[in-house]
Design brief:
Elements (H helix, E strand, L loop, with lengths): L19 E9 L12 E8 L6 E6 L5 H13 L6 H15 L8 E9 L2 E14 L2 E8 L8 H15 L4 E7 L3 H9 L3 E4 L6 E7 L2
Length: about 210
Amino acid sequence: MPHGATSDGAMAADTGIFSPMHRTDLAPFHARFPQGAAHTWLTRRWYYTPRSHRAYSVRQISPGDRRLLAEFALTLGQHTDDRELSSVQGLSDMLFERVIAGGADNAVGFAALENTAGGDRVIGVAAYAPATDESASFSLAVAHTHREEQVGRILLSTLVRHAKRVCVPRLTGEMHWSNRPMQMLAMSMGFSVEPDARDRNLRRLVLPLK
């Protein structure tokens, strides 16, 4: 599923609700912003994982995240079975060829980052890229180490809010039929789950935004 939402195993969704930390930091960004604005400050919002009580932050992806995203994609591939490798590749293509490339494409992504002794580490990403004038395809992936920590919910909520703010008409995605956690997450956020005429093992996720 090249533009899939999420999948079993490494690309897993989370369910549940938890409160963010009462703190918002602003991280300086001096490279080219995906929409072309220079010297923009990216808002970094902090959250706690509900089970392990670890802090992580969520912010918009920038071109300077190329190395972190490459490491994340590599880790996903190592913990993904053969049937899901195409979805990992599809997510990588969206991130590197559309979100980071920027330009007039209007593709956007958000990353969840955990601070480690070696610096920031990506533990999840959510991104969308325009598919037609009326819809954008989205992808969501969470590291296997955080698949039950509700990181997916925060990322998808952030992506949906941004899409509404910039007037994206509709978000669409794909998931494997057996991915119950993603289905429950999507339905709880208003997505409809539809059969995929091309592949009976896939389901389409659709969310009208206006």
